[in-house]
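Project standup — Tuesday

K.O.: blocked on the structure for the chain from last sprint. Re-posting the sequence here as requested.
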Amino acid sequence: MTNEGQGLGRSNGLAVFVKGAVVGDTVEVELTKVKKNYAFGRVISMIEESPARIEPMCEYSEQGLCGGCPYSSLSYEAQLALKEKQVRDKLVRLGGLEEPVLRPIIGMEEPFRYRNKATMPVWTGGIITRKGGIVENLGEAAVGFYKAKSHEVVDCYDCQIQSMPAMAAAEALRQFMESDNITAYDPKWEKGLMRHLVVKTARGTGEVMVVLVINGKGIPNHRKLVEMLDDYIYNLPPSEDGVEYSLESVVLSICKGKNGNLPGSVMGEELITIAGKPVIREQAGGLEFEISPLSFYQVNPVQMERLYAKAIEYAELSGTETVLDLYCGVGTIGLFAARSMEEAYMAEHNGQLDYDKVGRVLGIESVKGAVLDANRNAVINHIVNARYVLGKAEEELPKLVSGEDLKDESLRVEHADVVILDPPRAGCDPRLLDAVAEISPERIVYVSCDPATLARDVKYLGEKGYRFIEGTPVDMFPWGVHCEVVTKLDRVNEV
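H.V.: unblocked you, prediction finished:
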């Protein structure tokens, strides 16, 4: 199967991509598009079903409406095997590794309701414009997810991978828009108000943040909406862990017009807290974190702890290292590392902690709100050996190394023992990899959400004197095509 969830077969040397087929199916296919080396087709009849085929977990997947779970017809065991194979294949084909050491993929016991962040587009089928500036909805409000390879919104009342507060907030917004005639944004006319609903749910505390992305400065009668959101979330049953949900933050994100959103986000830069706090609290791995609307936090908190535990294992911290945490988000993995060093140091010194001798963590992140969260999270957890700075990692790290235009000499990085890389899906900028190689860390721990760009960067680092030791895939996205991988690379020679 492909990364898009299509079946892949071959006929007379031609690669054929088949929507709706899963690995192991025997199907009769009608070709719909033929190129020189590949073709696309659709299933005419099922000759023999794959042993790995299952009934889709929800009606939206079954009807082919929602594009959010392309592996919904594949058993979870088969998904794990497929993702592990895809990681291995990319490390071999793109990374140039002959026989990469890959540990068994870490899956979930219960791969449902795991997402702590939902981003749901809002749609009414378009709008009607009239003279005098009157704008009206063309149809009823839909809050859900995009249909595969389209911008058509599927009105989703219950998504099996989203949190219950996210579904409750969607219903509250749906009802509010209907009762108060609230318009949805239409990109054709660049008119209408509601664009997206973003819901963040803290699994450890039950705190919920609702972000309303709007094409305007405010929402008419917003107090009514806040009350409806609060009621819907308050009346939810506790989580399986016994945690009670509570609405703690309602934020407006101002995103006007066609280009009003921030790069890589549906939100705008201007944020207005209209109820509660501007952040919510999360607890994970014995630490506490504050999360703001724009800050990055892993969407699967259960697997996040397993992922970061493996990353700390690969870092092999003794307690006195200098650790760089690049693309650090709200500081989660860096704080895990800082605490690990404190514990390791105390274990070697009869429970005593000397902050002048224990190792330190320095993080770099490009999102201002995330940096503020990261430094605040260090304070909240009484961790004094971790600091976070604002900027693009590929631009800031060379400055920290050279000391050029450095206002705070304590941030100077002459050497790092361990570098942790956790880049976005596009992977690392070559300038950053060059800067990392220049300071010659003994070890690099690379956390990737895209095995292809990981393989590319592993190959590049190999040319800089770093050898791939091993990797462990972690399934952060059950029923989806993506797979997280944490890898260990050691320096083997000077380049």
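K.O.: great, moving the ticket to review. The chain has ten helices and 22 strands. The chain has a mean pLDDT of 92.
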